[in-house]
Amino acid sequence: MKDVFGKALLDYYHENHFEDIVTWTNISDKDILPLLYLFRSFSEMPKLEKEALRLCKGTILDVGCGSGSHSLWLQNKGFNVKAIDRSRGAIEVAQQRGVLNTELKSLLDETDTFDTILLLMNGTGIFQEVSQVSKYLRHLKSLLRPNGQILMDSSDISYMYSDGFEAEIKSESRYYGELDYYISYKGEEEVPMKWLYLDFETLKTACLTLGLRCEKVLDGKHFDYLARLS
């Protein structure tokens, strides 16, 4: 990983010359991800994120913390938060913004236990493929303390396909939410990554097979949802 994302966060935070991040997928055109959005305050967050933060309890793990916006809000509310990310630049920025407990690591390398685990901004994305969902959920379950919870959001992206959606999906060899995701910054492209958008019913079915309760907390404005696993 070139850590293009981390370089962008560092540039923005230190007020160096920066450009917004460009993102696209194998089924969508290029789009702009404003760096300012990645440093948003609580009042600027979408309602799903606000609700997830309000539901947090106990000791918290913030997975894919980015610049640390969620962790900082929780920390300022008095919570004990651990923030992890695979981006070295993101961890540096989170530390410099004041997040007290950070670590450069992937979710599957985490071994501590928590009362709340947060996976926001399409938290199911890190599962990569439907075939990996059970592995990640099983690991998440192992990190939960008694009466713990996992709060994650995702979207059902079937709306992004044509009117002949069913026929188009059947012709594909993979689940329709499995995307190839690309980002670039200042003309430098990151290594392409797999990214999973998971519809709620598929997530719920996967949870049930592992003894996890899955409830939908809230629907967003655009086919997105917040789920609570326990």
UniProtKB/TrEMBL annotation:
Limits of the Methyltransferase domain: 59-179
Domain of life: Bacteria
One example GO MF annotation: methyltransferase activity
Keyword Methyltransferase: yes
Keywords on record: Methyltransferase, Transferase
GO BP, sorted A to Z: methylation
Protein name: Methyltransferase domain-containing protein
Organism: Winogradskyella luteola
Lineage of origin: Bacteria, Pseudomonadati, Bacteroidota, Flavobacteriia, Flavobacteriales
